[in-house]
Every structure is written in C-alpha cells, then in structure tokens.
Amino acid sequence: MIIIGKNRMEARHSFYSFKGLIVLFVISTIIRAILFCLTCHQPLNIVDEQHYNRLAMSIIQRGEFAHFPGHPTASRPPLYPFFLAVLYKIGGLECWNIVRVVQVIISLLSGMVFHMLALDLFKEKKVAFWSAAIFLFYPSLIFFNYLILTETLFIFLFLSSIFLLVKGLKDCKNWMVFLGGILLGASSLTRSISYPLTIVLFIFFVFFAIKEKNTKMVVHAVALVVGVVVAIVPWAYRNYKIFHAFVPIDTTGGRNFYMGNYEHTPLHRAWAAVDNPPEIAWYRGHEKELRGLNEAEKQKWAIKKAKEFILDHPGLTLLRSVIKAANFWQLERTIIAGMSKGHFPGLKGPIKEALIATSILAAYVFVAILGFSGVFLKLWHDPKWTDFLILVILLYFTGIHALVFGHSRYHLPLIPFLCGYAAWFVINLKALYAASKVVTAKVTATVTMVFFAIWAYDAFIGSKEKVMAFLNQVF
Hints:
The chain has helices spanning 2-39, 47-62, 79-91, 96-122, 125-136, 139-143, 151-171, 174-188, 197-212, 215-243, 252-259, 287-290, 295-312, 314-328, 334-340, 350-381, 385-403, 415-427, 429-462, 464-474; strands at residues 66-68, 71-72. By secondary structure, the protein is mainly α. It has a two-stranded antiparallel ribbon with strand order 1-2.
C-alpha cells in the first residue's frame, strides 16, 4: 500500500511538472486561437491603439518617433511602438493580426515564466501549476491579447524581470539580477510606471541586507539599478537632445499627475479628466504660461501645479486618493464596456456578451479576494522575503495610481501575482484552518468586505450611470 501511495504521489507530481503543463498550454492555445478568429476583423477603436499605431507608422515611414512630421515626441514610452514597427515590417503596414498572433505567443510565454516564478515563490509544484492555470485562463488577460495595447508585452517583461530578480537573489548570481534590471528597464520603456519602482526595490533590498546582515544583497541591489540604467539611458539621452531636459521615459506622466490633482478632477472616475470638455480642460486658463513650452517643460509645469494643488487642498487630495485607489481595484469592465460600444464585432450577441461579461467578473472576484487573502495569510503563517517583495509591488502600483488616477485596466499587471496567491490559498485552505481557523476566517472576511465595499461604491455611486446604461442595453 505504501508503494502504491508513493507511486500515485509521484504520478501527481509528474502531472503537475510535465504532462499537466502540456495539456494546460495546449488548451489555452486552442482557446486563444478560437478567440483570434472572432477578433481578427476588428479595427482600432481605442484611442491608445490609434496613437501606438500612428507612432509605429511614423517610425517606418519617416524614421522618427512622432505623431506629426517634424515634431519628435516623448508622449508615449517607445518600446511598444517600435515593437509594432518591427512586426509591420514583417507582416505588412498596419497588419494588426500579426501583432495579435505574436501577442498570443507572448502571453503563453508569460505563462511559462510565471510558472517558474511561482515555483520559486511557493516551492510547491501543485501551487505553481494552478497559478499558471488561473493566469492562462484569466479572461481579461486573454482578451487583451487582441488589442493593440501595451498590457501583453508589459506583463511578459515585468514578470520576466521579477523572476530573474528572485532567482538571482536566491542563487546569488549578479548577472541574473543585472539582466532582471535590464528587463525592468525594458518594461519601463513599455509603460513608464515601473521605472520609479527601481528606487523602491533598491531600498527594499538594502533594508533586507541590513536586517539579515547580508552584504551580497547590497551588491545585488546595485546590479539591479545598473541594469535599469543601461536599458533606459539611450532613450533618456535621445529625449535630452530633443527637449534639453531630463526625461527618462515619457512626458505624459506629469500631465496625468496634474489632471488627477487639479480643480476640475472628477471626484469619481478621476481618469475621465482626460476627456474633460474644452472649457475645463487641463490647460484652460494657462494658455499664456504654456505657450512656447516644449513637452518636457509642460511636464515640469504640470508637476509643479499639481504639487501646489495638493498642498493647498490636503483633505480633498486624501479623499480623492482613497477613491482613486478604489477605482484601481474596481471590477474589470474594459472589455465589457468595449463590447457594449461595439468594439468587438466578432463577440456580438446577447449570449456571447453575457457569458464573457460573467466570466470576466467572476474570475476577477475570485482572484482578487482569494489572492489578497492568500498574500496576508502567507505573510502571517510562513513569511518569506519574496512575499514582502510581492506586497511591496502591490502597494507601489496602488499608491502610484492613487496619486495620479486609478482605473481597473491598470491593475492587470498585478493579476498574475494574485493568481499565484489565490492558488496557494485554495490548495492550503485545510491546513490554514487547522493552524488558525479564527485568523483565516477574519482575514478572508475582511478582504471580502473591503472589496465588496469598493465594488458597491463603483456600482451605486462612482459609475452608476455607466452601469445602468449597460444593464438597459443587455436586458
């Protein structure tokens, strides 16, 4: 009986390490192929898609990174437009389907990277397997493969950088940490939110070096910073030559910071400031101050004005920040809103739309609640420095968007980590209750109540009109 039990256990481990992974990736590939057939004819409906496409065409046709001929810009991070330009060279100008196919492949590679990262984080093959499974079948992430947006590429680069950092630090290999820094820099050149994270991670590693009296970790922290600098310096130098100012990645961050912190910032749905009518647009009343300024100078002006507003209105800023943090973790509805606007012609039909909307919302509720419960319970029962690292990343992204303006689309890069902790929570639920039923119940209940409060606020206050319009359309 012992031998049979042992053989069964070995078979289960074999399934989770190889056979199961093959099945997992085959099924996820088939699902993506079917959805590609349903989305391959859709145009670029989203403004951000159109901007990235225009920049890519500018690179190919005129050899310049610009929205308009002769006006070089840094309004967007450069890597994704260059990524599009390379694919257009291969597949033909504005061949969006080759981009979608490549993004599908990248999403599958992200699943492989995340499986390896989950093995390092949790040390359990079963947890790593189900972490990758939840990630690969997560509806919102799948649908973003077919949009000409940065999410898919950014998630791959960001996950790869964190994997190399964790692996390099555990194995004391500076070259891995350095390469992780380069990939973190590359992710920053895709979405600029990640480059300030370098400073946070440096402080984090130095803190643990002091706490554990491990000088090698300081060397690793330096290797990380050097890798990031190596990655972004060429683009920063290009920006300095054009604008005669230090612009590490892009010039949009300062303007967004201002739009999230000025007199006309909406209290609910703060990101809507981007679409404010001309009479209350961010520049209105400041035309003389802004006239003649280049992008970098306008960004500097915007940051200064936002800081002044924050200092003059601390109470309002605090209230807005709490609401923006809630917006950041609100229910995912980017794809659902797109379907309601007809952005996905291949997904039209009440049954399709209902199934997709239900799967998106159900997956997010599951991952958000169980993922955060898993994070806190892991830190309570079996804390490792890697768990604190993930918590720091979650807090950093949330904090940045609470300062600027949060939107549910922007939390997608954090979903893989929550998938991992959700898998760990479910698989270890029995053991968690055995260790401390009270703590497990309290943590899960608290996380659940916080999220339901966030979602209730959005449904009944923040986005009430949007929700009612969607429900009227469906029913």
